[in-house]
Design goal:
Layout (H helix, E strand, L loop, with lengths): L5 E3 L7 E5 L2 E5 L7 E2 L17 H36 L4 E8 L4 H13 L3 E2 L2 E9 L2 H8 L14 E3 L3 H10 L4 E7 L1 E2 L6 E5 L6 H14 L2 H9 L3 E2 L1
Parallel strand pairs: 5-7, 5-8
Antiparallel strand pairs: 1-2, 2-3, 3-4, 6-7, 8-11, 9-11, 10-12
């Protein structure tokens, strides 16, 4: 034996042991055994443990169900809130607005009124329903000036849309108290500017005056302007 090393060899049931420093090596055949070591370490087989995936899948499913429930609850609440808000917006009830237009503007004006009514447009807490009557401008002016009975135009309208500003000038000059809001052109054609004007007088209340102004702005929006163009009138 030399140094710290020692060797022993056996056969049969004997063992062979070899050590180097703190390391050992044992080998054997048959009933013999072999043990090897390096330093103070041993070689030990390891088996990788697999993490089960089904608990994670369950957690994800539960989370998705929870998010879906919350989303449905939010959407349901949002729809309910909108429905309640829409119902509350007409808290003052219904109101009517009558507009007289020149015959050449009848089709686009009625199309605009239908669109307005379908949207249940609200003015000052009232759901305002608009009706449109087509009449010759001379007939309307005569009734407004008292040269004929108002009944000839079925009562006082809340707004008027003649084909020319000339008719508005005549009314402004002779009965300025009937002007409820300034005229505004909503279409045009050859020698015609189609001014829309809100009126004031017996039978026209504050809600109707405000609604008349709102409808004037409505007529200048793209959808309504397209209707005027379809009727052969130029958009403003």
């Amino acid at each position: 034996m030399q140094g710290p090393e020692r060797n022993a060899v056996t056969t049969g049931s004997h063992q062979a042991i070899r050590t180097t420093g703190s390391h050992q090596a044992i080998s054997g055949t048959g009933s013999h055994k072999t043990v090897s070591g390096t330093g103070s370490h041993r070689a030990i087989g390891k088996t990788r443990r697999r993490v089960a995936k089904w608990p994670i899948a369950c957690l994800v499913l539960v989370a998705l169900i929870g998010l879906g429930w919350l989303g449905w609850g939010w959407a349901s609440g949002e729809l309910s809130s909108r429905a309640e808000a829409q119902a509350a917006s007409c808290a003052e009830g219904d109101a009517s607005l009558r507009v007289i237009v020149t015959p050449s503007a009848e089709a686009p004006a009625k199309a605009a009124a239908t669109r307005w009514n379908d949207a249940k447009t609200v003015v000052h807490g009232h759901c305002v329903n608009i009706t449109v009557d087509a009449m010759a401008s001379q007939r309307v002016l005569d009734a407004l000036l008292g040269q004929s009975e108002l009944s000839s135009i079925r009562g006082m309208p809340a707004a008027w849309l003649p084909e020319s500003s000339w008719w508005i000038s005549e009314l402004t000059t002779k009965k300025p108290e009937l002007i409820g809001s300034p005229p505004q052109s909503v279409a045009s054609a050859r020698s015609a500017d189609y001014p829309y004007i809100g009126l004031s007088g017996n039978g026209v209340d504050d809600v109707q005056k405000r609604a008349a102004q709102t409808f004037r702005g409505f007529l200048t929006e793209p959808a309504q302007q397209a209707d005027f163009a379809a009727a052969g009138l130029k958009a403003t």
